[in-house]
Amino acid sequence: MWQRLFGLCVAGALIIGMGAAAGLGQEAQGKPHDLELSRAVRPWEFLPVTGTRAGLLGNETGRMEAWVYPLKIFRGFHLKFHTEGQVLPAEALARTVMVRPESATTLYAGDTFTVRETFFVPVREQGALIILEVETERPLEIEAAFQRDFQLEWPAALGATYLDWAAQQRAFYFGEEQKKFSALVGSPTAAEPRQEYQTNYSESQESSFRLGITTKGKESKLIVIAGSMEGRAAAEKTYQHLTSDYAQLRKESAEYYRGYLEKTVNVELPDAQIQQAYDWARVSTVQGMVSNPSLGTGLVAGYRTSGESQRPGFAWYFGRDSFWTSLALNAEGDFANSRTALEFIGKYQREDGKIPHEISQGANFVDWFKGYPYPYASADATPLYVIAVNDYVVRSGDTAFAKEEWNSLWKAYEFLRSTYDEHGFAQNMGIGHGWVEGGPLLPVKTELYQTGLGIEALRALANLAHLTGKEEVSKELSENFAKQKPLMNEVFWIAEKKRFAFALDRDNHAVDEPSVLATVPMWFGLLDEGKADAMITQLADADHQTDWGMRIISERSPKFSGGGYHFGSVWPLFTGWASVGEYRYHRTFPAYANLRANALLALDGSLGHVTEVLSGDYYQPLSTSSPHQVWSAAMVVSPILRGMLGLETDAIHHIVKLEPHIPADWDRFSIENVRVGKNTLIINYSKSDEGIALETGLTSGSEECTFEFRPAVSLRAKVRTAELNGKPIPFQVETREGDQHIVAQFPIVTGKHFLRIRLVNDFGLSEQSSLPALGSTGHGLRVLSETWSASRDQLTLEVSGAAGGEYGLQVWNPGEIQSVEGAGLNFGVGNPSTLRENLWIQIPRSDSKPYPHVRVVIHFSATQNKGKAGKR
């Protein structure tokens, strides 16, 4: 459908095929979503397969540990191949890995056989399956081996546990003295069990069974894992269900993820990598939803193997992780899971109103909330709770939730207010950590991060008070917000250095350590525009921005260490904050570089997932990183929807806003399943050398809503006309330092609406960043600033790049350019079939500066012309 429409646009037609758009909603609903990623096996790379009640966590060679939450069942699971008198370890033969949302497959290849081992965890079952597809020329038998590790998740423990062979089930039975916690691991064809043992003379921790000989040809084998907190009978029932119904369960799980992708916000983008990363990020994010039999259902933070410990990464519930992730869920229209996550954290609120930082999956078995220091360790979870609830209510229209949770929200505010300092800023000292939990950046009294969240919580709660009919409260909170926002911009600003302080120390002195954490208040539009712009210019340089994301502080800082968890490393979380904040302040070059870095990470590490934290020196995850971190995946979704596309919905007032800052070499995108109350919208955007075209309409629902379109164009562009369905429509042009936005509003009731904006003299530059080789340093271009002359006939770029490097910028409408200083042009050179019209920048060699700065000045033609649109 969309390929047909976009084909018309690329051919030069601004009107997006009005006749071809018939049946728009029906065709969009039928769009397939079968995701798959594959590559050669990386033995070190994390391979997770998770459901809401169980998980298999391991690496791409097939070594796994099994969890049925909150139980760990075994570790070190692996296969051995018995053939021609040899015993071959499977990991030595692992060749290819392939992942889908519901499963992962490792292909093993020997001289005369292949085995495809598929790991599968049903979405809602307390167990997992391993499916083996064998093809062999010679007799082959597979042995499955593991080490029993039957324990509860940290910090709980079971005490004495044991292992027996259950002949009836052809499975090992895992038990403990109270006979409450049980598990089974076996196969319908299991035989020759070998059990762990310990004597005075020798011992073995490994248990195994064989799956029967395949003499020749093809055959499938099955390994079944089931667990229960309700005794042996329940575990046996699940084991039988998984054994009998695994094919149907596998089909249902695939359909679950396919349906999830089809129901949430879909985008179609010209960049295949970002497109793929967005789809996988939605899957990776929803895989954080976990149901614990004792605690309930909420969002866990991430996954990693636990090894000999009982801590599987961060596979327990975190407050601030849930809230940052919920912003992505809201943006993509997954309101049900967002509400579930908010309710889960809210129900464990402390009596004084403080919101939990973390809740272990083993919390029900220990005195977690009073006997451990972790549950309420953070200060930032409390304001984030208020912010996240408001975002959910506005986007979903669920005002009933605001009323139901009002007492909890007010208690959270009262606690937050009790932490205020003399400025009225929410403190960290004596209250809990903000973002930074330890290291040389502490101690401080309050981080800019924490202060910004506290102030945004005032605005969020004021809106929630208004929606629940508490107008006096809303007025008072709004007045406090209006007073605190400029005060923050004054107190934290270091004028002589044109940047914001990281924090205030205990004496209220600014801590002059420029940090990416300043982009959090930018996300919410809290910083003055000129000051934010100056701060972004500093953060965009190579000492802060790597090719794989944002360092927390500059590598030039004496406090910096590339391996410092809170004083030098790169978090995709920071990178997402920066991208959304930079887009909000119209700084598209660093914003897109950060968006793209996170997107590429989703396709390069643990396939389909984004890691927790990387080195600030070299492109590689820290050795302690959780490779499938949920809020890292959320920071692919939010920069695309909230940042680059500028998609905002208000279901209460029935408003949709679209403020795209797309790369200059993109000429199209589409968005489907945009939910606004009872309505669902579809949006189709295209750009040509004549201007911009927008098609939108309802695919379901009939409530009138307002569509506000605010596309960014060059400061050089002139608007000729704007027409809605062939008739002139009023519009405004908002001008800023770096771009201008055409603003047009119109109502949508039924049918399709076609908006055409005719432009002349539009112009744009874009750059496609890439990740370096694993373990290497950065090499990408940084565009630090763009400055236009008052007459719009000159654009000055300040860039930095690796010394001696050469870089190309794609140009939209190169006919506008008259001449260039500090760079070269290659227009019209080369094979026409592969022509890329570029602005080439050569960085001088330097022994003293690894990333020198270069000034590029573009002079434009004085006369107005349509020019020629450069396309990828």
Written overview of the protein:
This protein is α+β, with helices and mostly antiparallel strands and 872 residues long. It is built from 17 helices and 53 strands. Strand 37 and strand 38 (691-700) form a beta hairpin.
Helix amount: 25-40%
The best one-word shape is: globular
Number of strands: 53
Task: Please count the helical segments.
Answer: 17
Q: What is the overall pLDDT average?
A: 93
Low-confidence stretches: 1-32, 828-836, 865-872
Trace the largest sheet across and list its strands.
Answer: 1-7-8-9-10-19-14-13-12
- Radius of gyration, CA atoms, in whole angstroms: 28 Å
Describe the largest sheet.
9 strands, antiparallel
Instruction: Tell me the strand percentage band.
Output: 25-35%
Class from helix and strand fractions:
alpha+beta
The termini sit apart by 22 Å
Topology, element by element:
Layout: H1 2-10, H2 24-29, E1 37-40, E2 46-50, E3 54-59, E4 64-68, E5 71-83, E6 86-89, E7 94-100, E8 103-109, E9 113-120, E10 127-136, E11 140-152, E12 161-166, E13 171-176, E14 182-186, E15 191-194, E16 197-198, E17 203-204, E18 206-214, E19 217-228, H3 232-263, E20 266-268, H4 272-286, E21 289-292, E22 296-299, E23 302-303, E24 317-318, H5 319-331, H6 335-346, E25 358-359, H7 368-371, H8 381-396, H9 399-404, H10 406-418, E26 446-447, H11 448-467, H12 471-491, E27 493-494, E28 499-500, E29 503-504, E30 510-511, H13 519-523, H14 529-539, E31 545-546, E32 549-550, H15 572-584, H16 588-601, E33 628-629, H17 630-644, E34 647-650, E35 655-658, E36 668-676, E37 679-688, E38 691-700, E39 705-709, E40 712-713, E41 718-724, E42 727-728, E43 732-735, E44 740-748, E45 752-760, E46 764-766, E47 782-788, E48 794-800, E49 806-812, E50 817-821, E51 824-825, E52 838-842, E53 853-860
Parallel strand pairs: 35-39
Antiparallel strand pairs: 1-7, 2-3, 3-4, 4-5, 5-6, 5-11, 7-8, 8-9, 9-10, 10-19, 11-18, 12-13, 13-14, 14-19, 15-18, 16-17, 20-36, 21-22, 23-33, 24-25, 26-29, 27-28, 29-30, 31-32, 34-35, 36-37, 37-38, 38-45, 39-44, 40-44, 41-42, 41-45, 43-44, 46-49, 47-48, 48-53, 49-52, 50-53, 51-52
Helix pairs in contact: 4-16, 4-17, 5-6, 5-8, 5-17, 6-8, 8-10, 8-11, 10-11, 11-12, 15-16, 15-17, 16-17
